[in-house]
Amino acid sequence: MDVEEAIRTRRTHKVYGSEPVERAVLTELLELGRWAPNHHLTNPWRFRVLGPEALERLKAAVGPDGAGKLDRAPTLVAVSVLCTPDDPVAEEEDLLAAGCAAYAVLLGAHNRGLAAYWRTPAILREPAGRAALDIPDAEHCIGLLHLGPARQEQRVPERAPLDDVVTFLA
Ligand SMILES: Cc1cc2nc3c(=O)[nH]c(=O)nc-3n(C[C@H](O)[C@H](O)[C@H](O)COP(=O)(O)O)c2cc1C
User: Fold this and answer.
1) How far, in Å, CA of 86 to CA of 70, rounded?
2) What are the percentages of helix, strand and coil residues in the chain, rounded to 5?
3) Which protein residue's CA is at the shortest distance from atom 20 of ligand 1?
4) Other beta carbons less than 10 A from residue 111's beta carbon
5) What's the N-to-C CA distance of the chain in angstroms?
6) What is the set of domains in the chain, with CATH numbers?
7) Contact assessment for residue 50 and residue 136, using Cβ atoms and an 8 Å cutoff
8) Using a 6 Å cutoff on CB, does residue 152 contact ligand 1?
């Protein structure tokens, strides 16, 4: 799959098969993530692959209403970014870089025929959820990537027409 096809055809999946993503494949995906552009080469992203104990801790933190959603995909990866509140410009750049890294993981998964989903559950902004995944105060969690075998065709959500979002300045 070439890069443009991957960008156009990647979709958010919410239904998965039960087979976890193999560790070797996960390692490839996270290795891809670290090639995201990042100013000053700060390498600001951090990835935490949830094992069964971490998943149980997160479920306990979110409670019964939210726990079911954590079982949708067999493999979950929390993506966070190092915080640098004393340097707001660097902090913004690092946040964007970590977003690029997360996207690279999604594209790599799609390229391998895996389904994926970038989710931002509120629990990961709360102390209990962060503690469940050992995310220190010095990191901001930007998402919980869901990964696994695809089980459904996804509809293609419309994007705004190009004219709505592009201006060619004189
Ligand atoms: C930063 C970010 C956070 C997201 N958080 C959620 C979420 O919490 N719940 C959800 O259903 N989708 C979430 N999504 C997925 C978007 O809803 C999805 O990308 C959008 O509907 C377009 O669909 P597509 O990914 O198939 O193109 C998130 C996407 C991004 C980039």
Assistant:
1) 34
2) 45, 20, 35
3) 12
4) 17
5) 36
6) 3-152 (3.40.109.10)
7) no
8) no
What does the alpha-carbon distance between residue 141 and residue 152 come to, in Å, rounded to a whole number? 28
CA-nearest residue, atom 11 of ligand 1: 119
Which pLDDT tens digit goes with each residue over 8-66?
999 999 999 999 999 999 999 999 999 999 999 999 999 999 999 999 999 999 999 99
Residue closest by Cα to atom 4 of ligand 1 = 119
Query: Taking the model in full, what pTM does it have?
Result: 0.96
> What average pLDDT does the segment 130-151 reach?
97
Distance (Å) from CA 38 to ligand 1 centroid: 23
pLDDT of residue 126: 96
Q: State pLDDT tens for residues 69-105.
A: 999 999 999 999 999 999 999 999 999 999 999 999 9
Question: By the 8 A CB rule, do 120 and 40 touch?
Answer: no
In angstroms, what CA-CA distances link 167 with 48, 160, 164?
A: 39, 14, 8
> Considering just the CA atoms, what is the radius of gyration of the chain in Å?
17
